[in-house]
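Weekly puzzle thread! Below is a chain. First person to post its structure in token form gets bragging rights.
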Amino acid sequence: MEEIMKALKNIQKELNAQKIEIQKSGEKVTEQVILNISNKLEEKFTVLEEKHQILKEKTEQQEKRIQIMEKQARQRNIIFFGIEEGEASYHNLENNILQFINEIFSLQMDCRDIQEIKRVGKKGERPRPIIVTFCTLGSKINILKQKRSLKDTQYHLSEDYPKYILEKRKELQAEANKEREKGNKVTIKYDKLVILKSNNKRTLEASPESVPNTQPQTGTSTTRASKKNKIKQSNPSISRSNSVTEGVIKPSILSYLVNNNINTPRNQINDTTDNLNS
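Winning reply:
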């Protein structure tokens, strides 16, 4: 009986050991499966991240192109505010805006200077603003230069900015007010804040080519002199003089002199020799 009990205990121990081994092997298998799944997921995520980055760069480029195109489309626009709204047709609106520009700004414009006119917004008690697209940028600049003529009037004008630029300009306005409190001159140009400090002055720096080189450079003078000597030796200069005896008379000149002497009459030759002898 005792032997049977010992055999049963041994069998129980072996079963427990096998159970532990099975558990350990199961844990190893699950760890390996999890590791493989995580590796595959990481690979897929890296591919997706690369694609996302490429799409992000493309969208950023497209946004920049759209912003450039929108800026160019609004480049020749001016928005007029406060002009009475009573026109019945496009031609009436065109005539009203031309009359307004010519009277207020003392300009001579006609329908050929304007590409498009339109009112924006919903009708209400106040007159809607008018967006005018000029045919040339110069016409717009001429009007902006005389913007002060609208001072102390119900009318005013502004440039046509996209919505995101208007929001950015509002943010920059707060910074501009802070800089003005410090005593600095501030202007907002499109979407940038330009600060002109009162103490600083703009100076033009001279380019390196225009600044004379006062310091002697080692080795340059000797090399330049040697180069000049080589040039002189390779191309020796021939001394030139006005007298015929100092230089070498070419055969063509001799033949020319001989022909002249032959063609001249003897009386003239004798006269010249007499004059020389006298």
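Puzzle host: Confirmed. Bonus trivia for everyone else. The chain has seven helices and six strands.
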